[in-house]
Write a structure and sequence with these properties.
By secondary structure, the chain is of the alpha+beta class. It is about 25% helix and about 25% strand. It contains two helices and seven strands; from the N terminus they run E-E-E-H-E-E-E-H-E. Strands 3-2-1-7 form a four-stranded antiparallel sheet. A hairpin with a 5-residue loop joins strand 2 and strand 3.
Length: about 140
């Protein structure tokens, strides 16, 4: 059964009283675009089926507190960056097909967030004390 990755956009008040758009995960966590990229790409990796990896032992683990992937063999954490093709994460995939599926998931979520962030926000006076959230889509 495929996993759903839900994306919302949330506007929160910044220090200078302007709305700061953030992407919110299905867990309800509002993240900056950079934080969202890191977390979403790690989650896309974790959502892949076990047969996508060389072995279960080689699959990196997801840390929900940091949004990073963790290698239990080297005791190191890393950012799930699909643009860094020399990253050790690529060595964990069974084939290039699964690496491409991970990259597609990651990029689709980022594009979705960027699209929502670029859309105009509602008038400030109408939403001064609430957060604005919109369910975008499921992948």
């Amino acid at each position: 059964m495929p996993h759903a990755l839900k994306v919302w956009i949330t506007a929160v008040w910044g220090e200078n009283e302007t709305l700061v758009p953030r992407c919110r995960t299905e867990r309800g966590v509002a993240l900056t675009l950079e934080e969202y990229k890191m977390d979403t790409c790690a989650r896309c990796y974790v959502y892949l089926p076990s047969f996508a990896f060389v072995s279960y032992e080689r699959k990196l683990r997801y840390n929900p507190n940091t949004g990073l992937l963790y290698d239990i063999h080297t005791n190191t954490s890393c950012v799930a960056d699909p643009d860094n093709t020399s990253h050790p994460i690529y060595d964990t995939f069974q084939s290039d097909l699964f690496a491409r599926k991970w990259i597609a998931c990651c990029r689709a979520a980022i594009e979705c967030c960027e699209k929502m962030r670029s859309d105009p926000l509602p008038p400030e006076e109408k939403y001064r004390n609430i957060k604005v959230s919109v369910l975008l889509y499921e992948i």
